[in-house]
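Re: the pair you flagged

First of the two:
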Amino acid sequence: MPNTKPDAKIFSITQSKYLAEKIAAAYGVSLGKVITSTYSDGEFQPSYEESIRGTRIFIIGSTNPGPENLMEMLLMIDAAKRASARHITAVLPYFGWARQDRKDKPRVPIAAKLVAKMLEAAGATRIITMDLHADQIQGFFEKPVDHLFASTVFLPYLKSLNLDNLTIASPDMGGSKRAYAYSKALESDVVICYKQRAKANVISHMELIGDVTGKNVVLVDDMVDTAGTLTKAADVMMERGALSVRAICTHPILSGNAYERIENSKLVELIVTDSIPLKQESKKIRVISCANLFADVMQNVHYNRSISSNFLM
């Protein structure tokens, strides 16, 4: 039976326009027009330049810091609500502020919960995101959350490498579930890195749980920030007899000296998605687009079809 439902409309915050254009093309529609006016003090105001009354709209935007990305998403959701959009789906390829998902010491915020509440208060009726830092962040929302896994796009690439003696590794204890899911799909062994931090982004000690001798190792993680953990893990594994070390990280935050660390590291390559734009090019960084994944899920959501086939882990 042909779909008779009117097409949804897709819009984007400024930073994520590069990805939104690819998603819209894969979806089969043109990216909606938004004009953002900026005052001299930095305040900005997005404006939809077409009618969205009674329609389903998707607003695409990763909310990685700085705060203007989250603020622009909130303003666009609010504007859509006041323009009488029927359904407002916030598509967050990268859900920023997610590392603050609990109180790990007294007198600190739970920023991930706060962001969830702000998105709902602004008027979002549904959330689509990918590889949350912690799965339980879904529970911070009262609205439906579709949590996609980048393994959908990474696994075909890994299989195409045809690596012998493949071993999947997690750079920390918290990522062990993700590592086991990849290992199950690839029928490989698993090793875990145990790390202790002196402070945020600074590793004081790292140990390896498992054997990597003669193995081609693939580290998997949800994000790469300063790349300190990944490069340290690669050094440890090569010292323990690994043949090669690659890394798969969904969200390429890559702050500080990350690019320099990766270039000078023992990593063969770092494989990421385009959820966040790269700040610079690197011969060691391979980008695999997540646009088709999001476009497929968005179409299925719009036409009320199942999206379970998009969950490989």
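Second of the two:
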Amino acid sequence: MRDANEHSACVDAWMDRAAQGAPPDRLVQLFERAFNALWRRAHVTLGEVTLGAIVDRVLYYACERYPVLSSLRMESAGICCVALQERAGGVRRDQIEEGLRFILVEFLTVLGNLTAEILTPALHAELSKVAQEEAGGIERASESAPGISEGEDGEEVET
């Protein structure tokens, strides 16, 4: 069984690669993109109701610890960060960064615990993929490479 440290390391690598030095509003935008990519990947296996309950829990705890995040809202496709992005310029970057990091690590941890870590490799890969996209390295997450599609469990399968 993996521990939160592996999830933390994955999120830290994403932040170092994709969000390092980004102003607060851009950091929020990058977080929304990364979180929603994780949502899409997990949705294949868990469905909207289960995923929604998990996100509600994660957001509840995150807002308790980081009140600056209270404007985040769950939607059918993930998290909406528009209100936070609009306010981000008036908030210290480190406050936003710590809170967004907490959400990602907590989300990955809860999903990992719920699924006995079966989704963890795919979710970590998705977060890494988003970081590569930000760096201009590969196609957008919503576009599959030719000859590759997702199986029922969300794993990539050659076609």
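The longest strand covers residues 73-75.

-B.
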